[in-house]
């Protein structure tokens, strides 16, 4: 029987603006040594290298990945923990057809940090999993690339904030733009309202 590796990570927990993105990555275990050779946590890769990995994965029919975005308004309404739980449920619902998530597959979902899959899945949360476990690192790359691309698109809609530069994080530049222009629909109001006064 085919053995699978399943990894989950997120990008964008701390920014002032834009979505939080969850990503699920599935790969055949026997292909892992070659597939993940040289991979690193997305935070330790340049944007160019992350895009290269993303392109490699996209062109590889042996792997499966998808992502789910949690909107700023959802984060404001439910708080991070509950909002992530809702996003995680949506993520796994979209991946139900994959054999790795079947009840008898024997696969354990490996998650980074403080993340948890829906309770019906065998799972293990690993602190700094994106640094230690290649399939989680792959999920971290998917989440980061998809979120960064979203922020670049968002910059075209709200050019006054410089989202393409800081990707929504609370940099000095971003705080100054918020003070000048106020908040837009892309901002997490519970995160950054004090800077809009």
Task: Please outline what is shown here.
43% of the residues lie in helices and 16% in strands.
Task: Please specify the SSE layout and strand pairing.
Elements: E1 4-11, E2 20-28, H1 32-35, H2 47-58, E3 64-70, H3 72-94, E4 109-112, E5 123-126, H4 129-132, H5 134-157, H6 163-166, H7 172-181, H8 189-192
Parallel strand pairs: 1-4, 4-5
Antiparallel strand pairs: 1-2, 2-3
Helix pairs in contact: 2-5
Describe the structure.
With 197 residues, this protein is an alpha/beta fold. 43% of the residues lie in helices and 16% in strands. The protein has a single domain, classed as Nucleotidyltransferase, domain 5, CATH 3.30.420.10. It has a five-stranded mixed sheet. The mean pLDDT is 94.
Keywords:
8 helices; 16% strand; 197 residues; alpha/beta; Nucleotidyltransferase, domain 5; globular; five-stranded mixed beta sheet
The beta-strand count equals 5
Query: How many domains make up the coordinates?
Result: 1
Question: CATH topology, what is it called?
Answer: Nucleotidyltransferase, domain 5
What profile does the largest beta sheet have? 5 strands, mixed
User: What topology, given as strand order, has the largest sheet?
Assistant: 3-2-1-4-5
As a percent range, the share of strand residues is 15-25%
The stretches of 5 or more residues where confidence is low (pLDDT under 50) are: none
Helical/strand content category = alpha/beta
Estimated radius of gyration? 17 Å
CATH architecture, by name, is 2-Layer Sandwich
Oligomeric category: single chain
In whole angstroms, the N-to-C terminal distance is: 60 Å
**Helix coverage percent of residues?**
40-55%
Look at the structure and give the CATH class.
Alpha Beta
Mean pLDDT: 94
Helix count from the secondary structure assignment = 8
What general outline do the C-alpha atoms trace?
globular
The ordered H/E elements are EEHHEHEEHHHHH
**Considering the protein shown, what is the CATH homologous superfamily?**
Ribonuclease H-like superfamily/Ribonuclease H
